Automatic annotation (TrEMBL):
One of its GO terms (biological process) is base-excision repair, AP site formation. It comes from Actinacidiphila glaucinigra. Keywords: DNA damage, DNA repair. SUPFAM superfamilies: DNA-glycosylase. One of its GO terms (cellular component) is cytoplasm. Residues 1-49 are annotated as: Disordered. This is 3-methyladenine DNA glycosylase/8-oxoguanine DNA glycosylase. The lineage of its organism: Bacteria, Bacillati, Actinomycetota, Actinomycetes, Kitasatosporales. The keyword DNA repair applies. GO terms for molecular function: alkylated DNA binding; DNA-3-methyladenine glycosylase activity; DNA-7-methylguanine glycosylase activity.
Length: 325
């Protein structure tokens, strides 16, 4: 556990939580099947993400930095029908206004036609899959940058350390749940180089994150752009390539076609699921997914849900460590 997290938890240990202040609420009924876990799961950056929690009652909590300020959102579906949402903080109204988009109401699964048996079966087994749309670019862009060229565990640890050191406690039940809201754009840009180093983020990734933060206003405008223009807008920042841009727009814009290229595992998984080939590259993956043009990200999500992956023939990628021992 990071020292700063330890300090905060020790400070909180002597306090008895008071009654929770009621937040603003909203009820909403989705059109058609909706699986909260499948829909919101991509927003979670590892099991210890300080900005994402799942309660004992299976309610999902998210801490976000909205244009109106920090906010905590709780989303639950106790009866399997109506969605019950509650939000706290200056960003509460913003989060509740965009609840349907977050839960995939703007997504159109009906536009997708399965072209392979395994994809059809995955679609049949997961009717509640919806593509989320957060409407927040930096929230997904910074962690995507952290995930460049490192293992997922390394990136998740860096995200946790940075949020605990430079974020702020989430409003409402956030303190009780030990949640953190990420820094604002200026906060990201002001993190000193040695603090990135302490979080095990190399200079190339930290420089890209700082450049993105300094261009935050233009980055956030990507939510209103057409898919090709949104990709171009993000990639105009040095250090943000097709992989990072796609990973971001899948979440911020709910782009059903933003296929991830340059990934270490995805081409092999897609190739194995659709053809049985143990090794594939981006070109082969894109050729296989051509029948899903306009829906390639959704097709990849469904393929991943099949669980069909090529047998491992090499050791896992070893974590790096840029912090001197």
């Amino acid at each position: 556990m990071h020292p700063e997290q330890t300090r905060l938890l020790r400070a909180a240990a002597g306090r008895v939580p008071g009654p929770r202040t009621p937040g603003r609420t909203r009820r909403w009924t989705p059109r058609g099947p909706l699986d909260l876990g499948l829909t919101l799961g991509p927003l979670r950056r590892g099991p210890g993400d300080p900005a994402f929690r799942v309660g004992a009652d299976r309610a999902v909590y998210r801490a976000s930095r909205t244009p109106e300020g920090p906010g905590t959102l709780r989303v639950a579906r106790p009866s399997g029908g109506e969605i019950e949402a509650e939000a706290w903080g200056p960003g509460a109204e913003w989060l509740l206004d965009r609840l349907p988009a977050l839960l995939g109401d703007a997504d159109d699964p009906g536009a997708f036609t399965a072209r392979h048996r395994v994809v059809h079966e995955a679609q049949r087994r997961n009717p509640g899959l919806r593509l989320t749309r957060t409407g927040l670019v930096l929230e997904s862009l910074i962690p995507a940058i952290l995930e460049q060229k490192v293992t997922a565990d390394e990136a998740y640890r860096s995200w946790r350390v940075l949020l605990w050191r430079f974020g702020e406690p989430a409003p409402g039940p956030g303190e009780e749940l030990r949640m953190r809201v990420m820094p604002d754009a200026r906060g990201w840009a002001m993190i000193p180089s040695w603090e990135w180093h302490r979080a095990n983020v190399d200079g190339k990734r930290s420089a890209a994150a700082v450049r993105a933060a300094r261009a935050a206003a233009r980055m956030e405008q990507a939510t209103a752009l057409a898919p090709a223009d949104a990709l171009a807008r993000l990639q105009a920042v040095p250090g943000i390539g097709p992989w990072t841009a796609a990973e971001t727009l899948q979440r911020s814009n709910g782009d059903p076609d933003a296929i991830t290229v340059g990934d270490l595992h995805l081409p092999h998984t897609v190739g194995y699921a659709l053809t049985g080939a143990h090794r594939s590259d981006d070109a082969a993956m894109l050729e296989l997914l051509e029948p899903y043009a306009g829906q390639r990200h959704r097709a990849a999500r469904l393929i991943l849900l099949t669980g069909r992956r090529p047998p491992r023939r090499a050791p896992r990628m070893a974590p790096g460590n840029i912090v001197p021992l």
